[in-house]
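Task: sequence design from structure.
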């Protein structure tokens, strides 16, 4: 049997469930209208923490970040009642290094994870591990194959659901799409809310990662508009990596037009948002939301032709793949729009702060909810390496400028424009950001080598099929 996304699922599995909150009739009940405030607030605390991460989500597809497309009504409502960070950066433009950095507060280089076949060393404390030590109940539901327990991210979670009941359309890789992910998340939460007064729950949605095959008529809803948008009728050649053409794993024969794939992406974003609304609705109906902090972030974005890089991520360090949405909702805390630069590396310190657990001062991340945090800024440091990219690239952003180093060359951009290299015309800015990058790297500890048995042959083959180099 095939799901609406073109994937194989188990017989009897519900393919798609309409969310009772789709039309937003009840969604305003989820959050009190707290208004906005610029006054300093004391450090907030929460009895429970729900971390929601989404794969491959561009910040500019959310209404809260300026999109006019209307794809994310549930996330937009969450954003209106949250600290919304206008400038938040992933440390890498692909999943495992970015998520590992979230969960540990360390840069991927320190963890020895520069590709999706890595593993978080068992010796490295995680958010879940620290909270488990404080007798919090812990549970996780993941939907991306690279977040399987052998990634090391299971550490500290009492229950870790990595059951992938569907199959990706092109490569035969196992995954779980949004409806099944929400079903599993609710099932896990039913256990967590009665296990202990304090709990930490993490759910990772695979949608809208490609290939883009949203259920039902969702692509059709957006196809006319995307064809009419700039470049929508352009036909792409095929390229294995997406450099100048359509990547092999995205190709849905016979379609080569840009609009078809952008519409598919839009449909997947819409599908994910609806299912996230169902999850938040369940928390509200159970009376859990009023005592629970909800944190939302993407692990990275997706390139739609920026740098002539199409419907892919990992190669370039552009804003499309690195700038991510970040929302932090805490009951009773007045929402605000944050202009201070944040990094996903900050989430470890921030979530531990919500639980009243001291952060490790040796780690680079800062507590984004600490009193006066708005006056600070995090270094927006990022990196990508072969085989994910053709050459090693690293860089840093201060929210106004971005400095990149790649293949022995230096680049400086005044954001949001990434078309003109200002390295020669802005030497003082170049020197300042170069020094900032070197300072971040100098503070890093040596890479921690994980001590673990080699990957099983089947897992190694699946990772190689995904295009990830595997070293053992």
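Answer:
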């Amino acid at each position: 049997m095939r799901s609406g996304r073109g994937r194989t699922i188990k017989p009897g599995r519900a393919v798609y469930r309409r969310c009772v909150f789709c039309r937003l009739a009840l969604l305003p009940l989820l959050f009190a209208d707290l208004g906005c405030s610029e006054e300093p607030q004391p450090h907030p605390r929460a009895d429970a923490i729900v971390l929601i991460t989404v794969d491959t989500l561009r910040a500019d597809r959310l209404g809260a970040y300026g999109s006019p497309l209307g794809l994310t009504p549930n996330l937009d409502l969450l954003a209106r009642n949250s600290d919304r960070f206008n400038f938040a950066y992933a440390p890498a433009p692909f999943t495992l290094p970015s998520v590992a950095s979230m969960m540990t507060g360390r840069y991927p280089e320190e963890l020895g994870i520069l590709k999706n076949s890595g593993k978080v060393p068992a010796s490295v404390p995680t958010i879940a591990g620290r909270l488990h030590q404080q007798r919090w109940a812990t549970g996780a539901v993941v939907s991306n194959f690279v977040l399987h327990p052998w990634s090391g991210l299971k550490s500290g979670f009492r229950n870790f659901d990595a059951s992938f009941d569907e199959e990706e359309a092109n490569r035969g890789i196992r995954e779980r799409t949004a409806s099944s992910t929400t079903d599993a998340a609710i099932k896990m939460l039913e256990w967590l809310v009665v296990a202990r007064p304090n709990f930490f729950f993490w759910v990772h949605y695979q949608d809208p990662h490609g290939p883009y095959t949203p259920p039902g008529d969702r692509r059709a809803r957006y196809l006319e508009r995307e064809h009419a948008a700039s470049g929508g009728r352009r036909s792409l050649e095929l390229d294995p990596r997406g450099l100048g053409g359509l990547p092999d794993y995205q190709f849905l024969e016979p379609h080569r037009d840009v609009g078809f794939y952008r519409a598919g992406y839009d449909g997947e974003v819409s599908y994910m948002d609806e299912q996230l609304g169902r999850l938040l609705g369940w928390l509200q109906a159970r009376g859990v939301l009023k005592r629970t902090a909800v944190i939302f972030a993407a692990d990275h974005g997706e390139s739609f032709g920026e740098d002539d890089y199409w419907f892919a991520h990992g190669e370039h360090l552009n804003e499309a793949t690195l700038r991510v949405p970040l929302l932090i909702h805490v009951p009773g805390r007045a929402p605000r729009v944050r202009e201070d630069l944040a990094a996903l590396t900050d989430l470890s310190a921030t979530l531990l702060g919500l639980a009243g657990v001291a952060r490790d001062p040796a780690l680079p991340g800062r507590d984004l909810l600490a009193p006066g945090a708005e006056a600070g800024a995090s270094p927006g440091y990022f990196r990508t390496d072969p085989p994910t990219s053709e050459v090693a690239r690293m860089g840093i952003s201060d929210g106004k400028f971005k400095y990149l180093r790649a293949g022995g060359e230096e680049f400086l951009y005044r954001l949001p424009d990434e078309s003109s290299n200002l390295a020669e015309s802005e030497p003082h800015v170049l020197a300042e950001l170069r020094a900032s990058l070197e300072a971040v790297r100098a503070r890093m500890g040596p890479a921690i080598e994980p001590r673990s048995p080699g990957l099983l042959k089947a897992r190694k083959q699946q990772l190689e099929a995904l295009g990830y180099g595997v070293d053992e």
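The CA atoms of residues 14 and 180 lie 8 Å apart.
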